[in-house]
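Let us practice reading a record.
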Amino acid sequence: MKNYMDTEYQKLIDRFVLENDLVYLSEGWDRVVYTQKDREFVFRVSKNKDSQDAIYKEQENLKKIQSQLPSIQILMPEIITFKSLVVSEYPFVKGRRFDEIIDPQQRGRVLSKLCIFINELHSIKPRADIDLDHRDYLKETTKCHKAIQEQIFTKLNQKQREYVDELFGSLPEEDDQRSMKMSLLHTDIAFEHAYYDTTADILTIIDWSDMSYGDTAYEFHHLLRELSKDERAFVREHSNEAGNDLFWQRAWFYRYVNIFDLLLHAHHLQSKEKWTDAIQRLNKEMDDNMSQS
């Protein structure tokens, strides 16, 4: 029955894409992103009905804090319904994802804007009456470690097992945890969510569905994976936490733990293809971890 439902749902997505003249742009954890040929609007389509909740969650989150957001363009997505399909449309034109920007000077300009945005976001003190998800990311990574030990540890080779033990053995001490700075977080700042309009010189960040309040260091876990070594150094230098070594140790920790979520997800789905892909990424992450300093 599930396979039938998945097939019918995909047919509905295909029909929406065809009727609106959309072009495939990228694919994330639970969404497929399209752009429109003539206007370059961005459409994010959930891969399944359950993940449609995130579309409404993003609007709810933005409404909660819109008056407190930093002075950078934050657009409220428009929700489109197409039969039983729910789609987010982001109404900005000529935006290009950060990873599509090749010119070094232009990338540097966008990165400067992104650093300003992150610093301003983390400086916001949410009003007491705003209901935000409070997340304990260190506790969540401890649960992740337990799941790895119980579910997939025996499927890893010796080198990968040693890496797991070394990585999770680097969890911050309790005293370090008490000194952590807590902030309002986007939590998913990555290339696929950062769009830059070169003509208007505007940076837009999308997908606020996972917005939370938690350890500020968690905000950087995607960027530390996606940016070059020089760009990572630039982000640290221009961060509010530039000289805080413990902060950046936690940021790197979150960055490397992230891959195990993919492994556990692949194991849960019993997908050989996703497992193979996640293992390849793990091996690459291990090599990168050796050279990150």
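A brief commentary: The chain has a mean pLDDT of 84.
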